[in-house]
Amino acid sequence: QVQLVESGGGLVQAGGSLRLSCAASGRTFSSYHMGWFRQAPGKEREFVGAINWSFGYTYYADSVKGRFTISSDNAKNTVFLQMNSLKPEDTAIYSCATTFGAILRNPTNYDYWGQGTQVTVSS
């Protein structure tokens, strides 16, 4: 089985930056996607972005494109979410998840989830 642990969340002022980490352990994979999602109170879980573990291809939601960057350190089985120019509307619990499929924006296609880390952006 796969275990995912997010870290790096916290409180930051608008315009600031945070770097989230997602450490994976357990079963290893050769080719799949790691996705980042977020969920704010009263809202549906929202796709943030994803990265292909083998090739490093990245995909982003329009709401974060140009501000967020996903990268990976395969040797450490870790995926990162660099968040710049943060806005109050970015406030949410951020979770990472894995999928072997190609439909990345639907959270129901993901098999394993981390516990989430809180990101709060103040104005």
Report how far apart the termini are: 40 Å
- How confident is the prediction overall: mean pLDDT? 93
Largest sheet: 7 strands, mixed
Number of extended strands: 11
Q: How would you describe what is shown here?
A:
The chain has 123 residues and is mainly β. Helices cover 0% and strands 52% of the residues. It has no helices and 11 strands. Strands 2, 4, 5, 6, 9, 10 and 11 form a 7-stranded mixed beta sheet that branches. Strand 4 (33-39) and strand 5 (46-52) form a beta hairpin. The protein starts with a strand and ends with a strand. The mean pLDDT is 93.
Distinctive features:
123 residues, mainly beta, 4-stranded antiparallel beta sheet, globular
In short:
With 123 residues, the chain is an all-beta fold. It is 0% helix and 52% strand. Strands 2, 4, 5, 6, 9, 10 and 11 form a 7-stranded mixed sheet that branches.
Question: What is the topological layout?
Answer:
Blueprint: E1 2-7, E2 10-13, E3 18-26, E4 33-39, E5 46-52, E6 58-60, E7 68-73, E8 78-83, E9 92-99, E10 112-113, E11 117-122
Parallel strand pairs: 2-11
Antiparallel strand pairs: 1-3, 3-8, 4-5, 4-9, 5-6, 7-8, 9-10, 9-11
